[in-house]
Amino acid sequence: MTAENLLDRQFGADAPNTKWVTDVTEFRIGDRKLYLSPIIDLFDRSVVAWACGPSPSLDLTTTSLRGAIAALPPVPRRWSTPTRASGTGTAPGAP
Questions:
Q1: How many other β-carbons are positioned within 10 Å of the β-carbon of residue 21?
Q2: Is residue 63 classed as helix, strand or coil in its secondary structure?
Q3: How far is 75 from 73, CA to CA, in rounded Å?
Q4: 41-81: per-residue pLDDT in tens?
Q5: What is the Cα–Cα distance from 24 to 42, expressed in whole angstroms?
Q6: Do 19 and 44 touch, CB atoms closer than 8 A?
Q7: Residue 89 pLDDT level (bands cut at 50, 70, 90)
Q8: Is 17 exposed, middle or buried (0-12, 13-18, 19+ CB in 10 A)?
Q9: Closest CA to 81 of 94, 72, 90
Q10: What are the boundaries of the region Disordered (predicted)?
Q11: Are the beta carbons of 75 and 55 closer than 8 angstroms?
């Protein structure tokens, strides 16, 4: 299976956390193999998160992706409070 080419070879980003990439790299250590899956932010080429393990599995890449998502800064919430005149407002988390 081949994923759709969303980047179209545009390996730069104008802001942090807008384009992440990953690849799995194999390292040989003695007679063993170790696989590294970093998540790299194309804005500044920083490693946002990584995972390593004994096989290049889907679990390896999803572990690094989950770590990157967990490292994202919290999104500020916009809160609205009810007004006395109308008695209406927006509940937290509502659009």
A1: 13
A2: helix
A3: 6
A4: 999 999 999 999 999 999 999 999 999 999 998 888 777 66
A5: 16
A6: no
A7: very low
A8: middle
A9: 90
A10: 75-95
A11: no
pLDDT at residue number 76: 82
Closest-CA residue to 49 (of 28, 26, 20, 76): 20
Torsion of CA 19, 4, 67, 63, to 10 degrees: -160
| Burial bucket for residue 35 (CB in 10 Å: 0-12, 13-18, 19+) | middle
What is the pTM for the complete model shown?
0.71
How many of the other CB atoms lie within 10 Å of CB of 22? 19
Task: Please give the backbone phi and psi of residue 28, each rounded to the nearest 5 degrees, phi first.
Answer: -100, 125
Cα dihedral value 61, 42, 17, 15, nearest 10: -170
Per domain, the residue ranges of the chain are 20-71
